[in-house]
Task: structure prediction
Amino acid sequence: MNDDAEFLEAGRKLFAGEADFFYAAAKPDGLPPVTLPEIAFAGRSNVGKSSLVNALTGRNALARASNTPGRTRELIFFNLGGRLNLVDMPGYGYASVGKEMSSGWVKLVRDYLRGRTTLLRCFVLVDGRHGVKASDEETFKSLDSTAVSYAVVLTKRDEVKLSEQAGRIEATKDVLRKHAAAYPEVFFTSAQTKEGVPELRAHVARLLAERGPG
Ligand code: GDP
Result:
């Protein structure tokens, strides 16, 4: 097997096992202790974050949608097969959400990111139909300032014409070149058709392998 095939298989296995909710944190002082390697998912409300988390783990209802009452301001922790934690971060950028919520979001997220030495990568989801918005760039800046390594995942690929997909990726890469902590490659996924999902799993498996045991 070549390298890519090996990680596609490792990624498939990593996400095919048990996936269990184990913690919800609404306040920075309520975070679970740093233990396993983690990956985190952030993005504007409605970007398709819960759909992608569910597609990655092959579940229909692991992650809650942004409109689930009471769950929107929490960091939700899932454990994948005892090897990795997946952290679902609260969505941002809802029109109805005032400044207070955004600064609350920034504080919770910042406090989480600051202390998370085991965070392998934060995935920032961006709606593939529209590309990077001002609020996404604010998030990039926030992540640059905490020096967290992050990568952009464009979502809803099935809604973007094939002829426009490469351009959307290039435009996103252009934005990311201005951001110090951004991973230069861009993922493009569909929770509907599952395109790009195996590649994203493979990327996580590779990060985990590169980190090594312990
Ligand atoms: P969240 O608020 O970021 O968790 O977003 P959701 O996962 O709840 O998705 C928001 C809306 O986008 C829902 O109506 C989903 O059905 C839709 N959606 C999410 N992912 C995709 C996708 O890959 N393709 C399409 N066509 N729709 C999607």
